[in-house]
Amino acid sequence: MYHIKNDKRAQKSAELIYDGLSDLIEKKSYDMITITDIQKASGVGRATFYRSFDNINDVLYWQCALHYQEVMTGYLREKEKHEGPEDPYAFLTFFFSYWMHDENSRILEQLIKIGHYDIIYRCHFDSTLIIRNAVPPKNAMTEKYYTYYMSGLIGAFVGFLITWIENKKQLSTDELIGLLRSVQGEDASALFL
Q1: Which residue, among 23, 29, 17, has the nearest Cα to 56 in the 3D structure?
Q2: How far apart are CA 76 and CA 188, in angstroms?
Q3: For 160, what's the count of Cα atoms within 13 Å in the CB-facing half-sphere?
Q4: Torsion over CA of 16, 22, 26 and 32, rounded to 10 degrees?
Q5: What is the reported pTM?
Q6: How far apart are CA 59 and CA 22, in angstroms?
Q7: In this model, does residue 6 exceed pLDDT 50?
């Protein structure tokens, strides 16, 4: 797991570690990357690495979780600005527009390249709790069933997201939402909330 202190120096060190790892992913096989490689690429010492992360996968999990937190909290900020009935696809539009930017989707592209779909899935699942805690659920589903329900939906959606990125994000946000509506039905937003 990652355990980064909430101070500028620790945050900067974590960013340097991610940037170093990111460069290495482009140059060599992920399975061959070592902590020593990351030290050299990032200029951050071994002790600093282990103060923030337990292992290399944690660096990627941290970066992915940051992006998912940013997209979810960004959507909630936008939602607060609007009065009246909400477009049922507002979340999907915001979500895909966020990942449309290369600097945002870089982490997903890296995770797909190295086959760590599990990290994308876990970050997506964990981030739905941000929305669930801020927006009252549409139905009274008990906690007992919520995790099963969300696991199935998120599994399908992460597969959709991965396919979109593997295909170089060729479909626009509107095309993606149209495709999701044709697959999921009128309430494609249920894939998230």
Answers
A1: 17
A2: 18
A3: 23
A4: 90
A5: 0.89
A6: 10
A7: yes
What one-character DSSP code corresponds to residue 192?
T
The dihedral over CA atoms of 153, 135, 133, 100, expressed in degrees to the nearest 10, equals 60
pLDDT bin (cut points 50, 70, 90) of residue 81 is confident
What whole-number distance in Å separates Cα of residue 112 and Cα of residue 163?
A: 10
pLDDT digits (tens, 9 = 90+) for 62-71: 999 999 999 9
State the Cα–Cα distance between residues 117 and 102, nearest whole angstrom.
18
Distance CA 147, CA 143 (A): 7
Local structure of residue 43 (DSSP, 8 states): T
Cα–Cα distance, 126 to 68 (Å, whole number): 9
Amino acid at 40: K
Q: Which residues, in sequence order, are CB contacts of 124 under 8 Å at separation 6+?
A: 68, 154, 157, 158, 161
**Which pairs count as long-range contacts for 186-189, CB under 8 Å and 24+ apart, including other chains?**
186/88, 187/88, 188/89, 188/92, 189/88, 189/89, 189/90, 189/91, 189/92
